[in-house]
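#lab-general

N.A. 3:47 PM
ok so I finally got the sequence cleaned up, no stray characters, all 167 residues accounted for. can someone with queue access submit it? mine expired

B.Y. 3:52 PM
send it over

N.A. 3:53 PM
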Amino acid sequence: MKLMRKFILKNRKRFFIFMSIFFILFFINLAKDSFDGKYYIIKKTIWVIDKDKSKELLKYEELNARLSITKDLVELIQSESLIKEAKNNFEENNKKQKLPTVNLLINDIIVERKLNSRLMTISYKNKNEEIAKNFLNELIEVFEIESDQIFGVENLFVIDETGISKK
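B.Y. 4:20 PM
back already:
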């Protein structure tokens, strides 16, 4: 210990330069991993339809009816409890693949409601394409179950599966 202290005192400048370079390289590497920009973004568009309308053709006016339910569904899919349940289901079914914490997942899930319609687009981004696809599918499955139990919305149709974009 005394030898180390003597060395540091004798070579103070070198030691501080070395430590400064070490920390700079450490933080550059950390930032590179966090901001490398290689994310896969998976998007799906969902159409919310009432139970009694699922078997017949809908008119444009009916598509715009009950818009408030779509707002509530957007809040539901962004809720911590629903995301946590989807995360647990995903990790149970995919033992080798781990997801980030629920708080980080919330930031990676984007729900866009199409203005004045009953359409919403759900996006999830992840560095792994397979994880992005599978987690979004799990999220939508849990969402379908919860939306039926809470709001009585039984008919959610995925009408668009957008291709994968790298951002």
